[in-house]
Every structure is written in C-alpha cells, then in structure tokens.
C-alpha cells in the first residue's frame, strides 16, 4: 500500500515491475526504502520497517545504502502454528481487513458471509513460503546479531507486544570505548560508503554522509533543500556554506552527541576542514583510504547498470549474465573515464595538505577485501583516541 501511494520515479519503476509480474530488484527496494526513510517524519519520529530485508543479501544491500536499524525483532513460532494461522486467514474484500476463523472471527453474520480466502492461499504454498523463510532467516539474524532479538510469537498478542516494547526501549551497550568522531577520506570509489555503514552498524554510531544529508534536505523541501536543488539542477557544486549548515544541524542532534558519528563526503579540502573545526566538530579518528589510481579507474569505469532490472554489473568483478543483458547495460556519466580522472585530480590536489592538517592520519590500504579493510579500521577504533598536536 505504501508503494501504491508514492509518486516518485523509483516507485513508478517498482510498480512497472509489479504490473509485468516481475520481481522488484533488491537494489530498487533498498533505494525506495532509503527514499521513504529520508522523509522528514521518519527523520524526526523514527520508523518501523516490515517485510524487508528477508535475506542476508537484502540486508547487505540496505547496509550499503546506509540504512541501519537500532533494533531488529524477529517474531517466530513453530511451523505447525504458523501454517494454522496462515490457512485460517480471511479478508474483507471491501475494507481489506484481515480476520481469522479461529482467533478473530467477526460476530456479524453479514460480515462472515462476505469474507474470502486470500488469493493463492493453500497449504502447499504456505509450506513453500515457510521453507524459504527458514532458509533465509539465519542470514538476516547473523547480519544484525548485535541488535537482534528473537521473540516467541506463539503467545497472546499483548505478551508479544510487551516483550517487543521492552526490547525496543532498551539501549544496546556500545562496544566502542568512547564517543567516536570518525572521518573517512579517500578517492572516489574507495569504499567510504560501505565502510561507514559497517562502522555505524557495529558501534551503533551515526552514519553521516554529506551527500545523503543534501538529498534529505531536498526531499524534505526545506528552504536550504530548495536552494540545494537549484544548484543540482544547474549541474553546479553546492556551496560549502550550505553543506556545512546541513552537517552542523545533523552533528548537533542528540544521537550524534551521545553515540558519536562517522563522517564521509566532507571535508574534501583544507578550507572545508577548517570551517568544520571552527564549528567545533573535531575528529578523534581520521582514516585515509588509499587506493591506486589504476584500481579506482578499474572499479568505476567498468561499472554499468541494466536499465531494465536496475541491477549493477562490473565487467571484471560481476559481468552481465549474457550478451543480451550486456548489450543494454548503460554507464553512469559519473563513471566515465574523463569524469573519474577529474575527480582523482581534485583528490590528489588536496590529500597532502589535508594529511598535514589532521596530522595523526591513519592510512589504510583500501585496495583489498572490504571485510579486511573493516578489520583494520576496527582495530584502530578500539585503540585510545588520538589527540591533535597544538598548532
């Protein structure tokens, strides 16, 4: 129902998949969810996400998008109970209200007469779905093992709710020994977004992406968001002052103050770094993610996207499955060789002076497996924080 109510390009694309009886790609679902969670009501009030992810692959896609829940609740019950509950469902075709022949049967005979079985509801279909769930559920649980709780749903609803609320209102003990203020800096394509999401998930700190904040401001149609949109539409860089305003507002929120944060996308030069420090936002961890230029060029310029499915491919690491898909794949203009080389030049123009500015920089070889990179970052995060030398 949420999908039907949306008017965005992503929602339209998803509805087109549904209309043609095709499965919506994981990446498109994740983008849709990120779009929904970027709305001001979700930002201010929080959110409850149901139905996604249902597999480890989907959980990883969400994490790569920077979506990290505070709590994950898995409701479980014996298979026989779940099958009985599912087969007993009945639906009011006019209101779409759900009833059950055993647990929630209406007293009104007229209401009883109009209730219908959900389409495709058979014992075989239920068992098939249940087997698929059992295969995938462990992957979801392992993806969120530090913040996950399995609750027995084979008990009165009020008791289930009580246990869920007790868990949701609990605060996870942070495994970080201090409030981290982490900066990830590196060339385009070095893996900053993924590492930031993994750090935020592990240490329950806030993932702060300057690009994501600008998108949130635009989606919320705030004054600064409208100003940002005008620059984006004209293909011009957003002024530092606007980016800094968004960052200052986000980093001043209670969750950032109490839990800490990992920042990426800003600063990109010494002027931006100076502005950030003048606002009082000091780093106690600065990681420079080093990747050779030829590796960056290989990572980015060989990426393509299938416009039909939304799936992303890489001619070396994840080739298209066949020549037909390969022929229709398209390259993002930002992944063109010319654009990537320009971005690398900007990076090299500023990396040395930024290193001198932050002094106690931790260099990481980011040209290796993401989990190996994360393990190195993790070992450095657990050490006592560094102190800046007096200028």
In short:
By secondary structure, the protein is of the alpha/beta class. 51% of the residues lie in helices and 12% in strands.
Ordered list of secondary-structure elements with their pairings:
Blueprint: H1 2-5, H2 9-19, H3 26-37, H4 40-45, H5 56-64, E1 72-76, H6 79-87, E2 89-91, E3 98-100, H7 109-114, H8 123-143, E4 148-152, H9 157-168, E5 181-185, H10 192-203, E6 206-209, H11 210-219, H12 223-233, H13 240-251, H14 254-259, E7 261-264, H15 270-278, E8 285-290, H16 293-301, E9 303-305, E10 312-314, H17 323-328, H18 337-358, E11 362-365, H19 370-382
Parallel strand pairs: 1-4, 5-7, 5-8, 6-7, 8-11
Antiparallel strand pairs: 2-3, 9-10
Give a structural overview.
- Helix content is 51%, strand content 12%.
- The chain is globular.
- It is built from 19 helices and eleven strands.
- Helix 2 (9-19) runs antiparallel to helix 3, helix 5 (56-64) packs across helix 8 and helix 6 crosses helix 8 (123-143).
- The protein folds into three domains: 1-69, no CATH class; 71-171, 3-Layer(aba) Sandwich (Rossmann fold), CATH 3.40.50; 181-382, 3-Layer(aba) Sandwich (Rossmann fold), CATH 3.40.50.300.
- It is α/β, with parallel strands linked by helices.
- The chain has a five-stranded parallel β-sheet, with helices on both faces. Strands 1-4 form a two-stranded parallel ribbon.
């Amino acid at each position: 129902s949420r999908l039907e109510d949306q008017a965005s390009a992503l929602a339209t694309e998803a509805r087109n998949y549904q209309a043609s009886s095709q499965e919506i790609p994981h990446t498109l679902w994740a983008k849709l969810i990120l779009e929904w969670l970027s709305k001001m009501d979700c930002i201010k009030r929080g959110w409850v996400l149901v139905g996604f992810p249902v597999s480890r692959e989907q959980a990883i896609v969400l994490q790569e998008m920077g979506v990290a829940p505070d709590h994950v609740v898995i409701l479980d019950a014996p298979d026989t109970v779940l099958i009985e509950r599912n087969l007993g469902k009945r639906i009011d075709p006019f209101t779409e209200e759900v009833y059950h022949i055993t647990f929630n049967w209406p007293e009104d005979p007229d209401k009883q007469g109009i209730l219908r079985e959900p389409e495709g509801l058979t014992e075989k279909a239920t068992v098939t779905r249940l087997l698929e769930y059992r295969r995938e559920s462990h992957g979801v649980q392992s993806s969120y093992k530090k913040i996950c709780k399995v609750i027995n749903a084979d008990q009165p609803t009020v008791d289930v709710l009580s246990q869920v609320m007790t868990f949701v209102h609990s605060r996870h003990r942070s495994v970080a020994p201090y409030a981290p203020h982490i900066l990830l800096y590196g060339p385009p394509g070095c893996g900053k977004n993924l590492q930031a999401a993994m750090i935020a998930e592990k240490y329950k700190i806030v993932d702060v992406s300057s690009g994501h904040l600008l998108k949130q401001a635009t989606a919320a149609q705030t004054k600064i968001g409208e100003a940002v949109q005008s620059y984006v539409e004209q293909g011009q860089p957003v002024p530092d002052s606007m980016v800094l305003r968004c960052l200052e507002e986000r980093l001043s929120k209670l969750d950032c103050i109490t839990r800490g944060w990992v920042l990426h996308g800003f600063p990109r030069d010494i002027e931006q770094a100076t502005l950030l420090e003048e606002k009082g936002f000091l780093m106690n961890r600065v990681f420079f993610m080093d990747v050779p230029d030829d590796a960056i060029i290989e990572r980015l310029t060989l990426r393509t996207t299938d416009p039909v499915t939304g799936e992303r491919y890489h001619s070396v690491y994840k080739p298209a499955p066949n020549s037909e898909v390969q022929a229709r794949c398209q390259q993002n203009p930002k992944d063109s060789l010319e654009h990537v080389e320009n971005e690398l030049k900007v990076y090299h123009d500023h990396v040395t002076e930024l290193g001198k500015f932050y002094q106690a920089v931790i260099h990481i070889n980011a040209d290796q497996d993401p989990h190996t990179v994360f393990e190195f970052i993790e070992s450095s995060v657990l050490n006592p924080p560094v102190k800046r030398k007096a200028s």
